């Protein structure tokens, strides 16, 4: 920060008014900008942050938006020298992949020079839960980050912080003696960090708004922070991978038409052709038999976090995927198909219980597909 003169930032009204769910990114930006000062005041994070993206969010676009709007620096968490690439007021963001070594990720997330951020999509690996605070990013939040209005506000907010160091220091000193800080003494460092950042954000917000408007925003942001911290604690304790896998695979089948669905009682040459090119789902009253190439495509968005085998193992352990030899790593079954003219064929499938694919309105896969993919 430089200079002592207080400035007033005049934002267009459409920039100043925003939905609460996007303010977490503002708070992270403040935490990064004031990281050195936060540690001096004992508000610094004791471990890094994992941003868990909804499976519909593009990791590349999200990281680019963090770079453009918040001045984040993209690094490779596995490299030893990544710490030298980032200044102490910047966010360091790295994209997770399943081939990274855990000890190197742990070292990255333990850096205190800056705020280290690991971006994960869809599902969080068990090993990461204890290494970082997990913050979920919704599609709405990601969409907002890509707007010019958001970029303008972040820029104005950072300018306000750098040109008003006296205000920043005063607000943090007041926060240290505030009731909300004293009450948070036995809570997580994430809570203290976000509440301290909120104090700075509200000072910035007040420069262009009334007391009443600022009080309203304060209540909204406090609620968002507490929901975020509570959810981070829940994700640290447990994470239902099955629900995420179900959502991803179901969404694929709902949104793509590169496959056909057949009853096992209606096998013909067209069915066999679809099976052999990996574009078929067969069903009876209890099970779906999915061609393995199709199943792999359906779960593709999770492949940066889990391997194809891990996905199948999770479903097998939950009793959703059915296979004959529970000790193998193939997880497929051979099924005999009998065509209408009496010919029999043996093909290999992923066998899944039908309830895995049932929709919220109680429809099975074949019931909600259009005529173009179901016979």
Would you give an account of this structure?
- With 375 residues, this protein is of the alpha/beta class.
- The protein contains 16 helices and eleven strands.
- The strands form two sheets. Strands 6, 7, 8, 9, 10 and 11 form a six-stranded mixed β-sheet that branches. Strands 2-3-4-1-5 form a five-stranded parallel β-sheet.
- Helix 2 packs across helix 10 and helix 8 crosses helix 10.
Strand content: 5-15%
Global morphology: elongated
Distance between the termini: 67 Å
Weakly predicted, low-confidence segments: 1-20, 371-375
Number of strands: 11
H/E series: HHHEHEEHEEHHHHHHHEHEEHHEEEH
How much helix, percentage-wise, in residues? Answer: 40-55%
- How many separate helices? 16
Biggest beta sheet summary: 6 strands, mixed
Average predicted local confidence, pLDDT: 86
Helix/strand/pairing category: alpha/beta
Computed Rg: 25 Å
């Amino acid at each position: 920060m430089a200079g002592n003169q207080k400035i007033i930032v005049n934002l267009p009204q459409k920039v100043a008014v925003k939905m609460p769910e996007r303010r977490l990114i503002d708070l992270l930006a403040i935490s990064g900008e004031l990281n050195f000062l936060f540690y001096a005041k004992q508000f610094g994070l004791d471990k890094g942050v994992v941003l868990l993206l909804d499976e519909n969010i593009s990791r590349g676009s999200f990281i680019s938006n963090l770079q453009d709007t918040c001045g984040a620096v993209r690094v490779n968490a596995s490299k030893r020298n990544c710490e030298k690439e980032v200044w102490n007021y910047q966010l360091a963001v790295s994209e997770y992949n399943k081939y990274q070594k855990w000890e190197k990720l742990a070292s990255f997330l333990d850096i205190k020079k800056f705020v280290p951020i690991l971006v994960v999509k869809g599902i969080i690996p068990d090993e990461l839960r204890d290494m970082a605070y997990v913050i979920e990013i919704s599609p709405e939040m990601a969409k907002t980050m890509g707007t010019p209005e958001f970029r303008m506000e972040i820029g104005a907010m950072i300018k306000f912080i750098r040109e008003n160091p006296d205000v920043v220091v005063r607000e943090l000193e007041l926060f240290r003696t505030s009731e909300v800080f004293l009450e948070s003494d036995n809570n997580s460092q994430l809570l203290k960090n976000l509440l301290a950042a909120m104090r700075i954000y509200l000072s910035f917000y007040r420069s262009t708004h009334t007391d009443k408007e600022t009080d309203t925003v304060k209540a909204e942001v406090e609620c968002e922070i507490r929901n975020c911290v509570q959810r981070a604690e829940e994700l640290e304790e447990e994470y239902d991978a099955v629900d995420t896998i179900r959502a991803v695979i179901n969404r694929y089948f709902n949104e793509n038409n590169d496959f056909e669905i057949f009853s096992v009682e209606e096998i013909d040459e067209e069915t066999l052709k679809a099976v052999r090119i990996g574009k078929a789902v067969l069903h009876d009253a209890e099970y779906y038999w999915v061609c393995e190439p199709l199943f792999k495509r359906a779960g593709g968005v999770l492949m940066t976090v889990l391997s194809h085998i891990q996905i199948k193992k999770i479903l097998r352990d939950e009793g959703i995927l059915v296979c004959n030899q529970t000790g193998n790593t193939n997880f497929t079954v051979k099924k005999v198909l009998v065509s209408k003219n009496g010919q029999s064929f043996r093909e290999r499938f992923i066998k899944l219980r039908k309830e895995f694919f049932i929709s919220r309105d109680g429809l099975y896969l074949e019931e909600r597909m259009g005529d173009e993919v179901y016979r």
